[in-house]
Amino acid sequence: MGCNSSVAYRRSEKAIRAAILIQNWYRFTKARLETRRRYSLSIFQSIEYADEQDQLQLANFFTFMLDHCTHPDSVSHILTSPGVSQVVDEGLSLTEFENRIDVPDSYYGPRLSFPLTVEDANALLHAFRNEQLLHARYVLQLLCETRRVLKEMPNITHLSTSYSKEITVCGDLHGNLDDLLLIFYKNGLPSEQNPYVFNGDFVDRGKNSMEILIILFAFLLIYPNDLHLNRGNHEDYIMNLRYGFTKEVSKKYKDHGKLILCLLRDVFSWLPLATIIDSKVLILHGGISDTTDLDFLNALERSKLKSLMRPPKSVRDRQDQLKERIPTTRLSKHIANQNVAGKTQHISSSGSTESSGSNLPPDPALKEWKQILDILWSDPRSQNGCTPNKSRGGGCYFGPDVTAKLFERYNLKMLIRSHEFKPEGYEISHDGKVITIFSASNYYEEGSNRGAYIKLNPELIPRFVQYQVSKYTRRQNLQERVGTIESSALKSLREKIYAHRSELTSAFAQYDLNSTGRISVSDWAAAMESVLQLELPWRMLRAQLVQMTPNGEADYMSCFYDLKIGQPTKEVQPALVETLCRYRRDLEIIFNIIDKDHSGLISLEEFGQTWKLFASHLGIDLYDESLDKLVLSIDYNKDGHIDFNEFLEAFHVVHRLEKKANS
Amino acid sequence: MFLFADGAVAEIEKKIIEAFEVFDHECNKTVDVREIGSIVRSLGCFPTEAELHELLAKVEEEEPTGYINLEKFLPVMTKVLLDRSYQPIPEDVLLHAFEALDENKCGYITKEELVKYLTEEGEPFTQEEMEDMLSTALDPETNTVRYRDYISMMIVDET
Fold first, then answer.
1. For a tag site, which of A119, A242, B94, B129 has the least CB within 10 Å?
2. Residue range A56-74: average pLDDT?
């Protein structure tokens, strides 16, 4: 008896120790998963912001191309082809479109009739759930009407929660139609009893930006007092060129795409800049700065600023004047040089005012530009003060003191903004005064984050509703979700590594004075960070990126093992290949612009000219010969034209061990 | 007493700072106290909950604010790594632990048994933790956990 109970006791003790061990081990694996999830999101976000900074290079290039046009035919048509500007300038009526554009009997999509009714909205929702397209004529009519209605609205919309209505505020959607449909499913369609504010960034990145706009504009026309839109930094034609919306429209609307895009450019510039509820809650897309002046913002002519990526003409002209006076260094530098110099270009106005000297009078256009730039691009931070937003290259970081001052000046209680990815779909900062609301779930990758919206009651207390769209019928467990996100993040990172191979190699070599092929992990991390300009936990990522020698050093060239481009092109200089990889997306945009008739083909001559211009703009030295060889190797059927999509696809970086992409 | 080269200590400190920054959203050198466990574990340590509490006591402020400063955390964590505290649990030891709960030595543990042990004994799991483990470990057809398979799966994913 005594024996049995002591055996039982011992077994139990053993079991307890075993339990502790298992629990300990389990908590370790959970923590590892959480760490992997965090650094994956960190990778996505750093690369995204670095990309947004690079955006500046492209905006400058456009300015460069448009102002010093050597091929007026190929480039300036985006702004000046006659038929298009006519539509934009004159208020063409709905019947004009009806007369000009035929809708065939074979079209089974929604046929809109103006003024729109709820039936039209329902027809649109139904059609888009079934992946149908709205016919171009109706798109153009819708945009025309939307512009007419938006023109009547002030820059800042004032709402009230009287009649005990709750107002729903949604953040970035970025072309994720599934999220919008999910929001409507959970929260009901917009109506007089169910008002909504959509806080910008409806387009880019996702694949249904057009459909989201159509739905939002339709509801705007049906319930103009209950559906409110604020402009986001992506409601900007130059951003759209880079981040996918322009491409989406061109693909979906081959014949009328250009017309639609031109009209959209106008419509975007007529979107209101902010919404204020009960004079207490300010809703705008980005944030504020220490100079934000709501009265000034309310009074300016918002439609003059079609894109925030280019300073207003008067500012550009002045910059040009100054350049003529002062001997210039290069207009722009190769990105590596920029990084080494420690400067990042910043599209705030501070650069221009610095060099202007005191003899030139202040430019009102400049103030307008800065005010709007600040509210569309700024991010809140916990440190006090207002500093230039260096990760984005535009707007600023604003601290709790800036918020407090603004609130005091305008007697506000809360600021609701979007613009920043949040894993839980929302975040509260500045001691409860600032709310970030982000409505695009799975933004970076399936499983990366939830989306959310705010329900604001008449007492202005916010309630948050979260959701996440899933394409899998069985919900992935955490392990699988993190695995998916991590692979995707590492894939992007490896692409960057490949594209910076030469710079990385020389940075590594600087630490490896005896050319042993090995450097310390510390040096490896320092080199990676300085070349790629990404603040990431390199030591944590090391195992996935580089091989170690037995004595604990990094075999640095192994970074590049197993990485190659999709299609090897023989006899092409590696440096050229690398450059093409790095600028693949920029080139895609430029080619799409040159390709007027959307045939997917451009002539060898156009390609050569464009490439030369782009390379000279970036300060890249390339021998003509190598480019000619490359081009000839791409002209597969030797007819003097290149299929540029095929060409660019060839420069897509792949890792030997990657599973085939399932997108 | 080992003497560590300055370089080694500096490298360890850099590792710690990196791990800390992964959890430092606001980039202001503080993290939520609830993340300390994840940070310590992400550095390769296997502290029990009790050991974590001890560590927290050393890094918390006099008046706990819910946040931990890097300044306080760094020296404490450096010592942990230099002393090699909270050693990892090798695979075979983990296997023995599961076997200890498998009374009949049949290669699996029933869901009920596992839940009983892990939510009642040792440093009990929360319901969320239990459900999460089961979501990966449980074979829904037999309602058992085939622990060898489970361990192999988890270890592979680690690399």
1. A119
2. 51
Is the Cβ of A360 closer than 8 Å to some Cβ of chain B? no
Q: Which chain B residue shows the shortest CA-CA distance from A537?
A: B18
CB contact under 8 Å between B22 and A23, yes or no, is: no
CATH value at residue A614:
1.10.238.10
Percent of chain A with pLDDT over 90: 51
Catalytic residue list contains A228: no
Position A8 in a domain: yes
A440 found inside a domain: no
Tell me the residue range of the domain where A377 lies.
320-327+346-412
**What residues of chain A lie within 8 A of the CB of B46, using their CB?**
24-25, 28
Q: Are residues A69 and A54 in the same domain?
A: no
Q: Is the pLDDT of residue A156 over 90?
A: yes
Q: What is the pLDDT of residue A319?
A: 65
CB count within 10 Å of CB A508 equals 22
One domain for residues A540 and A585:
no
With tokens 């990385």, the residue in question is A504
Distance from CA of B18 to the nearest CA of A (A): 5
User: Does residue A338 have a pLDDT over 60?
Assistant: no
Residue ranges with strand state E in A315-430? 379-380, 386-388, 396-398, 414-417, 426-429
**Backbone φ/ψ region at A600: left (φ over 0), alpha (ψ -120 to 50), beta:** left
Q: In this structure, are A220 and A268 located in the same domain?
A: yes
In 3D space, the residue among B113, B105, B104 whose CA is nearest the CA of residue B144 turns out to be B113
Q: Which of B87, B99, B157 to mutate to test the interface with A (most CBs of A within 10 A)?
A: B157
Q: From the CA of A23, how many Å to the nearest CA of chain B?
A: 7
Coil/strand/helix, residue A385: coil
Is A23 near chain B, with CB under 8 Å?
Answer: yes
**Could you give the number of structural domains in chain A?**
5
Measured CA to CA, the distance from residue A197 to residue A303 in angstroms comes to 20
Last residue of a domain, one of A11, A40, A59: A59
In this structure, the answer to whether residues A105 and A199 fall within a common structural domain is: yes
